[in-house]
Amino acid sequence: MAAMETLCQLIGIDLSRLSREELTMLEAEIFLHVCKVLEEKFRIEHREFFRVMQFSQKKEDAMLDQAFVGLVIKDILSTREYSLKGVAAYTGMHEDILQEVVDGRNTNPSAVLLRRAIELHRFVRKELYQSIVKKMMHEARRMQ
Fold first, then answer.
1. Angstrom distance (rounded) from CA 126 to CA 132
2. Distance (Å, rounded) from C-alpha 134 to C-alpha 7?
């Protein structure tokens, strides 16, 4: 919740004025926004593959949806700050499960794995998340 409080302070949202239900909805909205930004990052990284395969936008979206958690984990691994064993320890998931997600054999991992993978991703890709927060702040100010 500390990250949520900091973000809300930066964009001028008084959390004490929100009900528990409103807080949950706000957290979900922020989470969805982060996922959308990450999806676009992965879309750009795989642009050439999509072009060669001549995927439609709908097919790209489906592929990114299925591979999303695996792409997050691969990006964590690419930093070399964590091994698959380290990611497993952080997420509380068995290495074999993570390997299945990374390989694309498990395209429906749990929401818990998604949340924990993004938490770890946020740690290893600080600058990316700082830019996401800046973008959210800019959009929030523009809407006011």
1. 10
2. 10
Helices and strands (DSSP H and E) totals, the chain: 8, 0
Which helix (H) or strand (E) segment holds residue 22: the answer is: helix 20-45
The 10s digit of each residue's pLDDT in 50-86 is 999 999 999 999 999 999 999 999 999 999 999 999 9
Phi then psi for residue 93, to 5 deg, are -110, 150
On the CB side of 26, CA atoms within 13 Å amount to 20
pTM: 0.86
Contacts of 14 (CB under 8 A, 6+ apart): 8
Helix axes 57-78, 20-45, angle to 10 degrees: 90
